Every structure is written in C-alpha cells, then in structure tokens.
C-alpha cells in the first residue's frame, strides 16, 4: 500500500513552500491530501494545491458548508501521518491547547495518527515563552518536529523561525513514515529502462520499456535505507529521491556502468536490454540514395544479468532478474532463471493487451529456488515495495 499523508497548511508567508513540498512528496511516491486553514487560503490557492497534489483539497469553510466534516475526520484517521506545514505560532498554540475551532484543528484533535510539525514564524514569536511552552507540550505528547531553520526571514529579521527547506521536510516525513530502515548499510544496484542501440547518428533500435518498474524498485529500496545505484537507459522519468542515477544509452555502456558500481549486496536487473546491436554503426546518416534498403548485421549484446550472476568475489549475494515473456510464462521463466544463474526472478507477461510496457500495473510470478509464487495484479509501485521487503527479510539474518 502506498503511504498517505494529510498535509495541513497553515496561514503564514512560508505556505508557498508547501507547494514544493507536495511536489517532492509525490516524487517520493507518497500520496498527499491537503487541508488549508482559512488564513492559508490567503497565501496559496486551493486550486494550485489541488493541481499539485492530484487530490481534493479541504478548507475549513468549504468543509463546514458541505457538512462533510465527519468524512474528513475518517480521512485523517486512515492517513499514515498528519503533517502541519507551515505551523504558525497561532496554529501551534491552538494545537497545544486542544482547540477544535476549524477543520485543521478538529482533525488534529480527533485522531491518534502521528503528527509531524514544521514550524515557521517570526523569531520573537518563536522565542516567546508562550510558544516555547506550547512546543514543549506538543513534544511531550509525541509530536515530531522538523526545523525551524535559522536565517534571514521574510520579515527581515534574523534567527530561528524560518521554515525548513522542503527537501528536509520531505526527508523528515519519509523518516516518520518508514522509521525502520532494514536495508541501511546495503548497496543495491538496479538496472532500468530500455537501451538504444544506434544504427547511425539519427536512428537506433529500442523497445517499449518505460523504466517505471525499475525506478519504483530503486525508490522502494532507498525508502528502506539502501544506498541505491540506478543504472538507467533513456527514460523520461525523474530520478527517485535518495538514489544515485547513472545514465547510459547502450547495453555495452549499461554493463560497464554496472561493473563500475560493484561491489553491491544486491543487483536487480529490471532493464529491457536490447539483445542485439548493429555490428558497425555508420558514422554519418545512412542515405536512401535510390538503392536497396541497407542490410543491418546484428551482433549479440552482453548479458548483464548473466554477467552479474557469475560466481566470483564481486558477485552480489542476491541477484534478481526479470523475465519478459509473451507466451508460456512459467516454463520460459524457469528456464531463463536457470540459464542466467540469478537467485530470484520476477516473470511478467508483456504480450499485447497486458499493457505492462508503459502501464502502471503489473502481475508477476515470483521464482525463488524451485518455488513459483504467483503475485496478484498490483501497481508497479506495490510490486516494488513487496520486492524490497523480501530483500530486507532475506538480508535480515546475514551480517553486513
Ligand atoms: N538482461 C540483461 N542483459 C541482456 C538481456 C537481458 O541483463 N542483454 C536481463 C533483463 O534485465 C532481465 C533478464 O535479463 O532481468 C531477462 O530479460 P528478457 O528480455 O526477459 O530475456 P532475454 O535475456 O532477452 O531472453 P529472450 O529474448 O530469449 O526472452
């Protein structure tokens, strides 16, 4: 299941930074639903928040008018975390004193979901004993905090009270959502995306891979604390947070980048590597010139998964491959796993109509030893999370 937070945006000048925060959270595959206090609507518009979060936005006034406050309370209870950002001095005071005079404070009072607070206020307000006492109260009740930072503030004063940078808040949210980092200290190598095998300077041989599955796996392993190197063929996807991406174009480059990234504890080959490359790439664009179409001589590309699976001191202790098949999925996958020498294999049916290439859903058979386990159809991000959890379980008993 995807992690989901409720972001309560308070009414301060720093509210604009919450827009960037929403963008960063979605990049980390965290679902965000927002509540704006009435004063927050003077700083950011519900429309921008809705556009960025891709979810309905709740404001105190609208919610009361719609008489749907009860639904929102249910919403806050089903979230994994409530985040208050920016938390103004006023909002902190109302939280500390148990007010429930608008939707935001009602939600905060009516739930026992963990709360993370990102304060932002004028330095004197921050230092005031009333605020410090309110913060102490909230801390003793288990509220988590990120920031504030020290620096120049919108009001021109200098000192503590500035909202933390959105990156830092996003990381604090991730830490709160995923406090256990079972893969910390592990290096995971992931290949993803297609390869482009050039014919000449303007043409290439490629395939339909979008890279989504491999990128989701890289993100899921990073969320569990792994140091992740993502060797990626050409895709239009953003690099997941906390992941080191190495961009490559061809299969030969992908193999070289993987070898350079070793040693690693685990390698996951999710890339759709081109099986063949053109023997001699033309230095200039091939012209038609009225003659017969050119004949392309193809040579086989190196097999990255098979290379990484070869016994040796640099072999990752867990090597995982994918099998993309269009028929007799299980039989082909079993044979492929044996041929490549990897430890686990995830087999998926990529035949026309399954929409696996480019789509967000996938259905896999999971092969470990002689066991074949069918996983139900799910989002690629959920497959990634399940796989990362399995990897963590596998490593839990072996020393780092
Ligand atoms: N793979 C690889 N290097 C290659 C070809 C494939 O690392 N040159 C990896 C893929 O990343 C995947 C696995 O091998 O993890 C299986 O890829 P797949 O395309 O299903 O199989 P192929 O090896 O290409 O075999 P075939 O074309 O016969 O199905």
From TrEMBL:
InterPro entries: CoaB-like_sf, CoaBC, DNA/pantothenate-metab_flavo_C, Flavin_trans-like, Flavoprotein. Pathway: Cofactor biosynthesis; coenzyme A biosynthesis; CoA from (R)-pantothenate: step 3/5; Cofactor biosynthesis; coenzyme A biosynthesis; CoA from (R)-pantothenate: step 2/5. It holds the Pfam family DFP. Its EC number is 4.1.1.36, 6.3.2.5. Residues 4-177 form the Flavoprotein domain. Keywords: Decarboxylase, Flavoprotein, FMN, Ligase, Lyase, Magnesium, Metal-binding, Multifunctional enzyme. Gene3D superfamilies: CoaB-like (3.40.50.10300), Flavin prenyltransferase-like (3.40.50.1950). Binds 1 FMN per subunit. The active site is at 155 (proton donor). CTP binds at residues 275, 285, 302-305, 322, 336, 340. Residues 188-400 are annotated as: Phosphopantothenate--cysteine ligase. Residues 183-393 form the DNA/pantothenate metabolism flavoprotein C-terminal domain. Its cofactor is Mg(2+); FMN. It catalyses: N-[(R)-4-phosphopantothenoyl]-L-cysteine + H(+) = (R)-4'-phosphopantetheine + CO2; (R)-4'-phosphopantothenate + L-cysteine + CTP = N-[(R)-4-phosphopantothenoyl]-L-cysteine + CMP + diphosphate + H(+). Residues 1-187 are annotated as: Phosphopantothenoylcysteine decarboxylase. GO terms for molecular function: phosphopantothenate--cysteine ligase activity; phosphopantothenoylcysteine decarboxylase activity. In the C-terminal section; belongs to the PPC synthetase family. Catalyzes two steps in the biosynthesis of coenzyme A. In the first step cysteine is conjugated to 4'-phosphopantothenate to form 4-phosphopantothenoylcysteine, in the latter compound is decarboxylated to form 4'-phosphopantotheine. Catalyzes two sequential steps in the biosynthesis of coenzyme A. In the first step cysteine is conjugated to 4'-phosphopantothenate to form 4-phosphopantothenoylcysteine. In the second step the latter compound is decarboxylated to form 4'-phosphopantotheine. NCBIfam families: coaBC_dfp. This is Coenzyme A biosynthesis bifunctional protein CoaBC. It comes from Asaia spathodeae. The lineage of its organism: Bacteria, Pseudomonadati, Pseudomonadota, Alphaproteobacteria, Acetobacterales.
